[in-house]
Design goal:
It is a single chain. By secondary structure, the chain is α+β, with helices and mostly antiparallel strands. Helix content is about 45%, strand content about 15%. The strands form three sheets. A five-stranded mixed β-sheet has the order 2-3-4-5-10. The protein has a three-stranded antiparallel β-sheet with strand order 1-7-8, with no helix packed on it. Strands 6-9 form a two-stranded antiparallel ribbon. A hairpin with a 5-residue loop joins β7 and β8.
Length: about 375
């Protein structure tokens, strides 16, 4: 028979919506710091006739800040006799294509994690333009126009750094509004299969799907960036307090230091400063801000790993941290070479470092944009 549609019976499989912390899978990259990841396995009540579906709820500190609800499914061990269905894996080609389409058609302006990603994406794009202004004339003198390096370069650097500063403030808001409950964010439902021929409901099926009623993260709140306790959670929402902590680092401080250097680089200020002040207030703050970005990027990368020496290739946040780390090195190198920029070769490398560092930040920011829209990732065990 051909399935026509599914409709709920109002009954949920008892035990299937209960998850218990697996103490053997509470991990963190560094033993003396709080854990950054944990697994929750489904429990089963004695009256259940079938085993619970082989689904693990994955808690990660980064995902928790971003309002994401990751699950891991053992497709081979699912109770097929009950007809259990799961959403497609997030690595599948069709899901990735849908996410790319979602990036250009969906604008959740109320989601602080989305705004963070967009701030750094736009800021990175402006710094790429800035890199062209300060580096391209050194490659081909004929392309230079009047005031390109000092005026265009100075103002685009200021605008890009200002947007980075805004992103840092949003990161701070995201961090202080982190949800500290065990938010599942998925619905495990019992449904009936409806057939085309007679429209009579057929045998029960179990399926899992995203459910806003089971989420207590603030990202879905369209009224405020700040979290309102149980702002839209239903009475049946599964949210238990968990004892896991997390390592986090806001780039707000380093962005502010970097911003100070960008203010100094505005032509009306920069053109009236001595070389000593330029070396200290402009290049010095660029170096300090870049080093702050390096530390933040390292911590964000480590946060996604189960061990400090094991890369988390399968986690989007890990790739974001790595690309931001590369970008941070570029910005720091630009500042470090700056005081010796009277040498043409050093000046070339300093300007080039801004360019390739901005591209690296752009890649990381676009992955973060993708991540902010993918609230319900599904992994295969």
């Amino acid at each position: 028979m051909t399935r026509h549609s599914n409709f709920q019976t109002g009954r949920k499989p008892r035990g299937y919506s209960d998850f218990q912390l697996d103490e053997t899978h509470v991990a963190g990259p560094v033993p003396f710091l709080n854990p950054t990841a944990a697994h929750y396995k489904p429990t089963q009540h004695p009256e259940e006739t079938h085993p619970p579906p082989q689904i693990e709820r994955l808690w990660r500190s980064r995902d928790n800040r971003k309002g994401r609800h990751a699950i891991r499914v053992d497709t081979e061990a699912l109770p097929h006799e009950t007809g259990f269905t799961v959403p497609p894996l997030t690595r599948s080609g069709s899901t990735v294509a849908k996410m790319f389409l979602r990036m250009v058609t969906y604008v959740p302006y109320w989601d602080v994690s989305y705004l963070v990603a967009m701030s750094f994406t736009i800021g990175s794009a402006i710094f790429i333009i800035n890199g062209f202004f300060v580096w391209l004339p050194l490659v081909d003198k004929k392309t230079e126009f009047h005031g390109e390096i000092t005026v265009a370069g100075g103002w685009t650097g200021f605008v890009g750094a200002t947007i980075f500063e805004l992103g840092g403030v949003l990161l701070f808001l995201e961090a202080i509004n982190t949800n500290h409950t065990g938010c599942f964010g998925w619905a495990l439902e019992t449904v009936l299969e409806k057939t085309i021929d007679d429209g009579i409901p057929r045998p029960e099926m179990n399926e899992i799907r995203p459910s806003s009623s089971r989420c207590e993260h603030h990202h879905a709140n369209r009224k405020s960036f700040l979290r309102e306790k149980h702002h839209h959670a239903s009475e049946n929402a599964h949210s238990q307090l968990d004892g896991t902590g997390y390592v986090t680092s806001s780039s707000d401080g380093s962005a502010t230091i970097f911003w100070i250097g960008a203010i100094v680089g505005i032509p009306p200020i920069f053109n009236h400063m001595s070389q000593g002040l330029i070396d200290g207030l402009y290049w010095g703050t660029t170096i300090l801000g870049g080093m702050g970005f390096i530390i933040s990027s390292l911590l964000y990368t480590l946060e996604t790993q189960s061990k400090w020496y094991l890369p988390a290739w399968h986690v989007l946040g890990w790739h974001i941290g790595i690309w931001n780390l590369i970008g941070s090195v570029g910005f720091t190198l630009c500042g470090a070479l700056g005081p010796a920029s009277s040498n043409s070769g050093v000046n070339y490398q300093s300007s080039l470092a801004t360019f390739w560092g901005s591209i690296a930040f752009m890649i990381g920011s676009m992955i973060q944009w993708y991540e902010s829209l993918q609230k319900h990732p599904v992994e295969k065990k």
